[in-house]
Amino acid sequence: MTRRQLTDEQWKFIESYLPIGGFGPHPKRLRQQFEGVIWRFRTSSQWREMPGEFGPWPTVYGRFRVWRDAGVFTALPEGVIAEAARKGKTDLSLVSVDSTTTRAHHDTAGMRIGKEIMDALEEAAAEQEQARQKGAARRNRTGRTKVTSPGGKHGGTSGGDTSSA
């Protein structure tokens, strides 16, 4: 059972972007391995679940890593856009720019900052949190600022009924 996903014309275009080593034989199953990568991402399956027709999964995964590290999956879409522009088949109404922004912790983003800057940022964050909590403590549920009497919350009395003494 063949799961061809690419036409011969598409494969000819894609093949020019794949890095081939300067020595050794040309991989005979390069197209099947590339289609295995496509299959893996289309199905969201694990690499180990890959059908044997694409080759052994460790080989396909190894090729994927080489291609990823060589920037194939960045250059390929750019090449498709350039080829479409060359042929006059670009339609900018179909272009979509993702403007989603996600903030991450500076360690997650790979940012490296000095101890002095980190201390200043932590101090500013602590001051901001303290001011936020201080403001929240002064507000009751209606959003008005609480007014406390000098004797405390209930004017110095501990019970609700002070008439029976």
Automatic annotation (TrEMBL):
Residues 135-144 have a biased composition (Basic residues). It holds the Pfam family DUF4096. It comes from Streptomyces griseochromogenes. Residues 6-76 form the Insertion element IS402-like domain. Residues 123-165 are annotated as: Disordered. Transmembrane segments: none annotated. This is Transposase. PANTHER family: BLL5188 PROTEIN, TIS1421-TRANSPOSASE PROTEIN A.
